[in-house]
Design brief:
Helices cover 9% and strands 50% of the residues. The protein contains 2 helices and 18 strands. It has helices at 2-26, 32-37, and strands spanning 40-57, 61-64, 70-73, 83-89, 96-102, 108-111, 117-136, 139-151, 156-157, 173-189, 193-206, 216-218, 221-233, 236-246, 248-253, 258-276, 294-296, 299-301. A hairpin with a 6-residue loop joins strand 4 (83-89) and strand 5. The radius of gyration is 29 Å and the shape is elongated.
C-alpha cells in the first residue's frame, strides 16, 4: 500500500508538470488548477455479493453432537467415560472453550489427523463503496473505502455427511470494512459508453463484535472487475461492475494452538455513479443563457442552463434528441401542435 501511495504521488507530480508545460498556450482559457482538478472523479456504488466460504480441519478431533453442536478437541486428550474434558467451538469467528462436554450414544467422534474434513458455506452481502480516482489518458489511479453488511453462512461438511451435521456460526450478520488502492484502464471508449478493467488491492476486517481480533490474522484482498459505464454528461456516468474477489483470514484456536485458514472467494455485482470534477467554472453572469461552453473576457465557462446529468457543452439536439411533439400523449395526436 505504501508503494502504491508513493507511485501515485510521483504520477500526480508528473501529470502536474505535464499540464504546466501545456498550459502556456491556453492559460487564458483553462487554468492549471482547473486542469488538475478535472482529472479527479468520485465513485459511489452499492449492490450485492455472494461469498463462498471454506475451511479445512486437519489435526484436531471433532465431536459432533446429535443436536448439531460441533466441537474441536486435542487428539491427545483422554476421553474419560461419557464426557470430553475440553472442547472448542466458534472457530469461524470467535473460538470459545468448553469443559465437561457430554458425549451421547448417538454422538460422533472423529480424529482429523487421519482424515481431513472440509467445510463449505455460502453467504450473501450488501456492499456500499466510495472511492476517488485520478484519470490520465486512459488510465485510472486512486483509493477507496467499502462498508459491507454480510450474512452468516451455514457450513456443510464435504465428507461423512451422514455422520457430521452442518453448523452455523453464533451470529446472523456482521460488518466488513475495506480500505484499498485502485488501478484501472479503459479498453473501450465512445461518446456515450466506456468499458474499463480495474483491480483493487487492500486490507479488510470483520466487525469486532462478532469476530475476535485477538484470534484473527487478516491477509490482503484482491478484487478484479469490469466496469460498464454510460455517460449522461461530461461529468456524470452510471455504471455496473461485476467482479471477483479473493480474500482469506486465519483464526488461531486458543488452547489448541491450531490455526484454521478460512477462504472467502466472493462475487459481486455493483451499480453506481461516477461524478468527475468540472475543469470549467459555471458561468456566473446572471443574464447569460448560453447553453454551451463560452467565453466572458479572457476566461471560458460552462453553461449554467443544464443540470449536471445533462451535457454541459451539448451538440445540437444532444440533450433533448426527441422533440416534445413526439413525447407522451402527443405521440398519439395527428397534429401535436
Amino acid at each position: 500500500m505504501t508503494r502504491f501511495i508513493l507511485f501515485f504521488i510521483v504520477f500526480l507530480g508528473f501529470a502536474t508538470s505535464n499540464l504546466y508545460a501545456q498550459s502556456s498556450a491556453k492559460s487564458s482559457e483553462i487554468g492549471l488548477f482547473s486542469k488538475i482538478i478535472g482529472g479527479f472523479s468520485l465513485h459511489a456504488s452499492t449492490g450485492f455479493g455472494l461469498t463462498l466460504y471454506s475451511h479445512e480441519i486437519n489435526g484436531p478431533g471433532i465431536l459432533q453432537q446429535k443436536d448439531g453442536n460441533v466441537f474441536l478437541f486435542d487428539n491427545f486428550y483422554v476421553i474419560g467415560g461419557d464426557s470430553l474434558s475440553q472442547g472448542y467451538s466458534g472457530w469461524v469467528n470467535n473460538a470459545k472453550e468448553f469443559s465437561g462436554i457430554a458425549i451421547g450414544d448417538e454422538d460422533y467422534l472423529l480424529g482429523t489427523d487421519t482424515l481431513a474434513i472440509k467445510y463449505k458455506g455460502t453467504g450473501g452481502s450488501i456492499p456500499i463503496s466510495v472511492a476517488i480516482s485520478y484519470t490520465f489518458d486512459r488510465y485510472r489511479f486512486g483509493g477507496g473505502f467499502t462498508y459491507e453488511q454480510a450474512f452468516a453462512a451455514k457450513y456443510y461438511p464435504s465428507t461423512l455427511s451422514n455422520s457430521l451435521e452442518p453448523f452455523k456460526p453464533d451470529y446472523i450478520t456482521t460488518s466488513i470494512t475495506r480500505f484499498y488502492g485502485y488501478v484501472g484502464g479503459e479498453v473501450f471508449r465512445s461518446i456515450r459508453h466506456t468499458i474499463a478493467v480495474d483491480a483493487m488491492v487492500g486490507t479488510f476486517k470483520y466487525g469486532k463484535k462478532k469476530f475476535n481480533p485477538d484470534q484473527i490474522k487478516y491477509k490482503l484482498f484482491v478484487n478484479v472487475g469490469v466496469s460498464f459505464e454510460r455517460s449522461l454528461s461530461e461529468y456524470f456516468k452510471v455504471f455496473v461492475r461485476p467482479s471477483l474477489e479473493v480474500k482469506s483470514y486465519e483464526l488461531t484456536v486458543p488452547g489448541l494452538n491450531y490455526a484454521v485458514n478460512h477462504s472467502a472467494l466472493a462475487m459481486y455485482f455493483n451499480i453506481g455513479a461516477i461524478i468527475r470534477m468540472p475543469n470549467l467554472n459555471k458561468c456566473s453572469v446572471s443574464q447569460c443563457h448560453t447553453q454551451i461552453n463560452h467565453r466572458h473576457g479572457n476566461r471560458v465557462y460552462r453553461s449554467k442552463m443544464h443540470p449536471f446529468w445533462k451535457w454541459q457543452d451539448p451538440n445540437y439536439g444532444q440533450n433533448y434528441p426527441q422533440l416534445i411533439k413526439y413525447k407522451g400523449k402527443n405521440k398519439k395526436k395527428k397534429n401535436p401542435y
